[in-house]
Amino acid sequence: MDHSRAPLLEALADYHRLGRYGFTPPGHRQGRGTDARVLEVIGRDAFGSDVLANAGLDDRLSRHGYLARAEALMADAVRAETAFFSTCGSSLSVKAAMMAVAGGHDGGLLVPRDSHKSIVAGLIFSGVQPHWITPRWDAEQHFSHPPSPQQVRNAWEEHPDAAGALIVTPSPYGTCADIAAIADLCHERGKPLIVDEAWGAHLPFHEDLPTWAMDAGADVCVVSVHKMGAGFEQGSVFHLQGDLVDPIRLSECADLLMTTSPNVLIYAAMDGWRRQMVEHGHELLGEALRVAEHARRQLEEIPGIAVLDDELLGVEASHDLDRLQVLMDLAGTGASGYQAADWLRQHRRLDMGLADHRRLLATLSLGDDKGTIDTLVDGIRAWREQLTEPTPARIALPSPADLQLESAMLPRDAFFGPVETVPADNAVGRIAAEQLTPYPPGVPVVVPGEVIDRAVVDYLRTGLDAGMNVPDAADARLRTIRVVARA
Ligand SMILES: Cc1ncc(COP(=O)(O)O)c(C=O)c1O
Asked: What parts of the chain have a pLDDT lower than 70?
């Protein structure tokens, strides 16, 4: 295929060149109707390219097939058979993939318990029964690793009738599962593997990055182009191969969830990113990996900071690691990741990928260079130097066993059934009716349908006092929790 072409971008250039005008949405009319103060901040160009997808960029019957051609080029670029663009993030794509595989199927779906909240949302929408795959817990570091092939095998042995399996890899920390071995286990049973590869859009384009799900034999994978690629926020693609997932079912599930007004800016940026990756991705990502290595070495020299690398890998840990995710353990400084992140934002105007009770993550991309890394290293060094006697609020960290809550109801039934709001202390022993998710990384500590225990209430409440963010709780301070009403 001719990867020098970018059909959606070319169509947008034509739209401008031909001076098209639509008596259609968007009502701002390419910026004509936009308040000058808005244009001053956002810029006229953003509005100028915000045009209707059909009966705008393409004609009313999509006769030029710009989107279909861009999707075919994307599939070809990443060695998938089919690709679909979505403008609602992997949050939508993963739900569509789950519904296409397990919707209307009685056997449920194998799902890791440390999945992103969008997967739990997919369970709530679809009514699919999750069969949780236990993550690998490092109790000392208080960290979970993606499931091992053996854990997936165990889950299949317990639930042989499940419709398929879903895994999340890379995790938001860059740690990866052995996708090929897990795909083999699924395929031995004739069942599909879905990979939530939201953090892996760049993986197809460099051999020193972890294995790309399509190369490892997954059936469907979803990526967020806005995370590790260079698309606008919300740009996502699903990739599909093999004959275990019906492409029509998948695209129809996506259609059920999708907006009818997709943002052409998001589409066109994904199209242009694919062309950039095919033409220059290897070189750009090779350079990004060198920059990451440089960052790792510099950060490692700051007293008390350990840049995690080999410690994350092993039989009882992760299979591989994306080294563009620079994860720092701050335990040696005595401070929490929340404190470091807040200081960096306030004093250095730097935002970090993720912070928790002892870690800080810098997510690097092909947009970084030695200059941005110097800013990062200087900022973290300055934070370290001004740190005198850090007194992070104590967090009551639960044991892996305490985090393993009993599932008492389907997530959908618990969420949509009658609920009560009770003081957090009284929620112990009750069935949760809402997700409670520290964000980022967005892995729910409590899923609707699970029996809440004392340890997780103490963890979340002490976590909030220490700087944790639990934005999906109805009461974000967790003075109260929504639980399933007693009959
Ligand atoms: C593992 C994982 N899956 C899915 C998502 C959702 O992706 P998006 O933000 O593109 O909707 C995220 C977001 O952080 C994620 O970390």
From this structure: none
